[in-house]
Design a protein that fits this description.
- Strands 1-2-5-4-3 form a five-stranded mixed β-sheet.
- Helix 1 crosses helix 3.
- It is built from three helices and five strands; from the N terminus they run αβαβαβββ.
- It is of the alpha+beta class and 119 residues long.
- It has a single domain, classed as 2-Layer Sandwich (Beta Polymerase, domain 2), CATH 3.30.460.40.
């Protein structure tokens, strides 16, 4: 029973990660997985069975991409929301902040330079 519960959680998490990969890849958007899922993947590779599963996915994105992200994820059943100071992607059919994709904006990201910037 415990294994079935764990496997169900792992499958849901990886299904969500796959949706993000497809949406971002299709739109040509850059992102990096960080946080609990990144740690889980690293630990599982280094020492199987030692990883601790997370409920959400944290990704670093470019600061200038929120509108592009919102448009890219919509066909994949996800919706961009900014709630209580947190930017996230929620599954439309099961919206839950605990099982969301949390967006972390890259602090080194800057809007592209325009011709007016060089004047």
């Amino acid at each position: 029973m415990v294994n079935a519960f764990f496997e169900h959680r792992v499958n849901r998490l990886f299904d969500l990660a796959e949706q993000i990969e497809k949406a971002f890849s299709t739109a040509g958007l850059e992102y990096r997985v960080v946080g609990g899922l990144a740690a889980y993947l690293y630990v599982e590779e280094a020492e199987p069975d030692a990883g601790r599963l997370t409920r959400d996915i944290d990704i670093v994105v470019r600061r200038e991409d929120p509108e592009s992200i919102a448009a890219a994820v919509k066909p994949f059943g996800l919706e961009y929301r900014h709630v209580a100071g947190i930017d996230m992607l929620l599954q439309v059919d099961e919206p839950s902040a605990r099982r969301a994709v949390h967006l972390i904006f890259n602090v080194n990201s800057a809007p592209p330079a325009t011709s007016a910037d060089s004047a």
